[in-house]
Amino acid sequence: MSVEAPEVIPASAPSRQPAVTAIRRTFSSRLAAGFVVALTVLWTIPTFGLLVTSLRPQADVTGSGWWNVFLHPSFTLDNYKTVLVSGGYNVSGGLLPYFVNSLVISIPGTLFPLAIASMAAYALAWVPFRGSNVLFFTIFALQVVPLQLALLPLLQFFNLGLSIGPLTIVPALHLGGTFFTVWIAHTMFAMPLAIFLLHNFIAQLPRDVMEAATVDGANFFLTFRRIVLPLSMPSIAAFAIFQFLWVWNDLLVALTFVGGGQATVAPLTARLSQLTGSLGARWDLLTAGAFVSIVVPLIVFFSLQRFFVRGLLAGSVKG
Amino acid sequence: MSDILTSSMSKLGQMSLVVVVFFAVLLIVFFAAGRATGRIQRPVAIVVFLGPAIVLLLAGLLIPAIRTFVYSLYGASSIRYIGLKNYEWAFTDPGMRGVLINTVLWIVITPILSTAFGLTLALLSDRMRKRSESVTKSLIFMPMAISFVGASIIWKFVYQYIEPSQPQIGLLEQVVLWLGWKNPPNWLLWTPWNNFFLMVIMVWVQTGFAMVVLSAAIKAIPADVIEAASLDGATGWKLFSRVTVPMIRGTLVVVITTIMIAVLKIFDIVRTMTGGNFNTSVLANEMYSQTFVQADNGHGSALAVILFVGVVPLIFYNVRMLRKERALR
Predict the structure, then answer these.
(1) By the 8 A CB rule, do A157 and A234 touch?
(2) For B284-303, what is each residue's pLDDT tens digit?
(3) A160–chain B Cβ distance below 8 A for any pair
(4) Which residues of chain B lie closer than 8 angstroms to A19, CB-CB?
(5) Where is the domain boundary, B18, B36, B71?
């Protein structure tokens, strides 16, 4: 596992020796290493405490700090059982349905924008028409719109449709509180960044390959499916990971469109945010619940770190 | 239990069905549109490829954004035109003044701290062995993968307050008790310092981002520049402040502005930690509360517009710096 250098800043080839060796000599190396280790430990302790607490029996959690576990080790999986399936206490029904909701929201919330954005990026890059440059720039510029600016009107649109005065343009869709609203909202909000990033990559594909396809008689659709999609897999994968985590971790869009409470549609983040208030001091359950919600991103993070860093850095201005 | 399983399976099944239908429709449209020949071939392809994205952008961003601008000039239920009254409220209401002050504090403190930590770690970890460097970076970068909600729960546990005479479960209070602070306050209720405790969470998340980007920039400094400086006698702090930092200034600015943009929109942390109570609310959280809790479309929309106006110059500046960086290399 390693955090690779991001592509944002291409590393110029170091001529003789890496620049850092000179700096390396000038600091006292042992002191620096100690400092870095101390900071790393400091950064890791809060997450570690959460994990340890989620594995301790309830009486231990309320009666003593998690650091006491080194003196009196005792572990259990009961908290996870309670929090996931049996519910009980104030956790009605457990978190399992919310976990499923998070998956149900995140998978289409990743696939839909990827499909639509890669189509648009291909057309903007390889099917030029009058105004295509202006259109691309407009889409790029739309990244400045924070999604807060669109939330309320979009919610009204999903519930009431769109009308200008007495003229109804889109009738009431009655989509309020369904998965469709979150899927569509995430797809919409992902568009500017997704098109921009995929366009950057797709526009760089070798021209002769594209021309060869045309000579062989492939139409635009065949070229897109057989050549563009397979060749742009690296950038599609990077963006897919970024978008999946973005949707999985999102709270604002979920709260706005499906609310925080209902086990039928609300995702983990919305439910946990709510439980943090109502569960108060039940740290045995809250820590287990929090860990359930972060375990998926952590798996993605540690297994796909190279793609992940690339996607995350490229998308760090999204929102 | 069994009905949870049944309903879960049915939800996943429905989702798979929707995904399959979505891609099937795409394929059918591709096939049908692919049969077009001659002069219409090109226009048909453009419409099919770009149409969905344009409709989504219009309906999801452009039209709603314009509507929000209009709403911000109307009253709470969007019926009565009241001019700039909502903006007047945003900048003069005593409660709002606190929100704006908090937001400014967030924008100033969080990016500076994250970048300072990130820069220090980037500089120092560079000089460790390759393996320790990558482990360190992974661990520092990890919070970036976690949701703000998850991060908030992690830190709420650290800040948990219990009477000093009782056994402690919150790490922060236990540590200050060990250090001899007899009567520590309840961190999250302790105005105005509680804002700072919320900012710590954002710093914890963003430091990894700053570190990874700055580390790449430092590694990209040409070796001869550093060598020439060392030959001239620059060492340690001098080398760092006169050579390294000026060489990566562009990247530093991009990192700071990027974090500023994220901070301006910060919502989840405040929502989960305090709900904006105890004088900890910020712009994005207040925008949500005004719109969806108080049901005041006018106030909420005005705050959204203010947020937008705050973000735009940062993004433009950011893009310009990135362009310059690219042109230089």
Answers:
(1) no
(2) 999 999 999 999 999 999 99
(3) no
(4) 218-219, 221-223, 225-227
(5) B71
